Structure formats: structure tokens, C-alpha cells
Amino acid sequence: MMNRRALLGGAAAGGAAGAALLSGLNTARAQDGETVHVGSALPLSGAAAADGIEFRNGLELAVTEINAAGGILGRPVELHVEDTGDMGASNTSQAMQRLIDRYETPVIVNGYNVGTSMVEMDVAADNDVLFTHYNTVISHNTKFLEDPERYYGSFQGDPPELYYGLNLLPYLNSLIEAGAWTPENRKIALIPSANEYSIVIANAVRDKAAEYGWEVSLYETVPFPNNQWGPVLAKLRQDPPAVIAVTHFLPQDLAQFMQQFVPQPTRSLVYMQYGPSLPAFREIGGDAVKGVLYSTTVACLPDDYAKGFRDAYLAAFGANSSPMTGSQTYDGLWKWALSAAIAGGPGAPFDKEQAQKIAAVQRKLVFRGVNGVCHVDPEGQSAFSYPAQTPDPSLGMPHQFLQHQDLTVPPILVGPALYANGEFLTPPWLG
Fold first, then answer.
1. Would you say residue 394 lies in a domain?
2. pTM for the full model?
């Protein structure tokens, strides 16, 4: 018999540990076998398709494992996915509503969709379904706080993008203090693309730069998407900064930046975020991406705990797939499944009473998944960030700094130190 401490104390995890917990819950309940339909609205075509495919992969693997563990209280899970294409508020909200109308999905787990203004939260609220996403935007937190009672069922599975900016400057200074890097000057150039996510990150760096002893020498917004970096590179070469921070995130575009930068580089550390996690970044960029430093608020950790997931993911989806990305929706679905089982069942659209019970469990459940710990911050209902929001790694998702060093292996995790599997190396164009 599992007590409350076993269920809610410490941390629960997806994969083997989550399967064990589900198995224990399943044996204690009647098994009626009625299918639980789960939904996802993903960009399977368009500029973000590389991510969308990995998000679908993560969900498919989670469904396979959850069903192997007995489903949710004996009920098998079935996944339904709608393509959001070029994303945006209309495409995304319509895709979510179709999932609810056609399949009566009590939950929707998305990766990210750009340009939605978080309208997804309204769809979830209007239908009383649980909603988890990885848009990684502070606007989720802001909208939740405007009306917590209405948006009770909407969760952001990772910390918002604001922490890309807040965590970059102290990390740069830590490299200097450790003697790992000596900058040419104290100038930083910011290159966002024309979307909320990228601009919030760039603005966070801009607003805190002086506090950490840095000067913003260039702030240049580029189109979204963008693969023509010549005009920006010309400005960078006129006044070379110590750091070039590109806050655009599409992997194919970032790879093109490096292809166009390396033939005539400045003596600048190149920092990017999120996009270099995807195989497309290395496949397109080739040797030009060696030395790139990047970070992500959420990705599969290179630790022993996540090894089973990584192996299963690569076996299922091929050597060129990206468990670092698919891990997001994988953890998101696992956490919801555990919460639904603990709450007594998955519910259905418009079953507000049951949806509120599941949401209450999701808020309390400290979940150790393959991305680290998802612990819900009540001030916005997104994941706490470690170390920016909490000094306790058992209560926050690690903000990972990684570097592409050897293209025959995954990028090396160089920070935080508690999770690192390697050290920062001087990029070849600075050697």
C-alpha cells in the first residue's frame, strides 16, 4: 500500500521509476480498459518541423512505456497529433480544439508553438482540460497570474525564456574567474530575431549587462526565420565584441550563421540558445559549429538516470534523432499520467472537478524526469529554474550550458558544475 509520502514526498520520475509507480497504482484500481485519448498540437511542417518531429517522438515513447506499465489505472493511452504548421494563435488554437472535439482529450501536451500569445491557455480553460507546454515564455507566467482560477490547468514544463538572459551574464563571468576564457573586451552583441521569445532573452541580457560589467555594443533584430546573416556580420566585424549572443533559435538558421561567421571570424565567443541541441544544427553547420557555446532551460541530461531513455529513444527513432529535444514532451506526458493516476483518473473535457484534482497533484508532485526536476513555481505555474530561482538542485530544473566540441559525440554539458560531463574549451577561431 503506497502512502502519501511515497507518492508526493521527494521526487517521482518517468521511465522505470514512473512505470513502477503506475504499476502500483494500477493494481489497486478496477481496470475497465476504456482508452484514454491524449492530444498534442505540434509544428510537424514549416520552419520548426525539426522540433515538432522530436516532440512527437517523445510522446510516442512515453505512451509506449505508460501502456507497458498498465496504462492509467488500467486504461490504455492513445496519442493523437495535429499539425500546427507555421504555428501562430489561429493554427495552434484550432488544432487544440480539433483534438478536444474529435477525441475528447482530457489533456494536451505540446512542445512549443511560436506567436500564439498563449491563446492555448484559453482553449484549455474553456474546455476544462489539462495543458502542458514548452513554449518557454514569461507571458505564460504573466497570463496565469492574471487569473489563476481560470488557468488552473495550464502548466509550462520548463522555466521561461527570461532565464536564458538572467543566467548568461553570471556564467560568462564565471568562465573569466575560473581562467577558462580571457575576453578581448567587455562588449557583448545581441542578435535577437523578430519574435517574443528571442526579444525577451535579448532584453534580459541588455537590462542586466552593466550590473555584471558588460557593455552592449550592438542590438540587431533579424527576421524570423533568417538565414542571411551577411548584414549583421558586417556590423560585428566593424566593432568586434567579446561575445556574440544570438537569441534566435531555429537550428538550421543558427548553423547558417556559423557557416557565414567562420570564414572571417571575430575574436568573439559565440553563444546561442536551444537550437544547437537539434541534429540539424550539426548536420548543416559541420565543422563550423565546433566551439559554439549554447544553453537550454530544458533538455535530456547526459547522466546515468536518463541513459535508459536515451538508448530507447535512439533505438526507436534512429541515430540522427534528438533525445535532448524529445525528452521535453516525454517528461510532460509522464508527469500528467502519474498525476491523473494519483488523482483517481484522467477525467474528460468539461469535467472541471476532476481536472482540478489532477492539476492540484501536478502542482505538488516534485517530478525527477530525464530533464532534471520539474517542481512547479506557484508564481506563474512553470518549472523552477536551478540555480537562478532555487539553490537546491532537487527542487529546480538545471539551466544547462553546453558546447559543441567533437561532432562524433553529443554536445558536452559544461555547466552547472553539479551536472557537467566536461569542461569548456577555447573555440578554434580563438585559439
1. no
2. 0.91
Task: Name the burial class of residue 192, with classes exposed (0-12), middle (13-18) and buried (19+) by CB atoms within 10 angstroms of its CB.
Answer: buried
Domains in the chain: how many in total?
A: 2
Written as tens digits, the pLDDT of the chain (431 aa) is 233 223 323 334 456 566 666 655 665 444 458 999 999 999 999 999 999 999 999 999 999 999 999 999 999 999 999 999 999 999 999 999 999 999 999 999 999 999 999 999 999 999 999 999 999 999 999 999 999 999 999 999 999 999 999 999 999 999 999 999 999 999 999 999 999 999 999 999 999 999 999 999 999 999 999 999 999 999 999 999 999 999 999 999 999 999 999 999 999 999 999 999 989 999 999 999 999 999 999 999 999 999 999 999 999 999 999 999 999 999 999 999 999 999 999 999 999 999 999 999 999 999 999 999 999 999 999 999 999 999 999 999 999 999 999 999 999 999 999 999 999 999 999 98
Strand, coil or helix: 233: helix
Q: Are residues 221 and 310 in the same domain?
A: no
Residue with cell 475528447: 104
CA-nearest of 225, 299, 295, 235 to 256 is 225
Question: Which CATH number goes with the domain that contains 207?
Answer: 3.40.50.2300
Contact in structure between 61 and 52 (CB atoms under 8 Å):
no
Domain that holds residue 413: 162-296+399-430
Pull the grid cell for residue 166. Answer: 538572467
**Do 191 and 256 fall into the same domain?**
yes
Residues 315, 262 share a domain: no
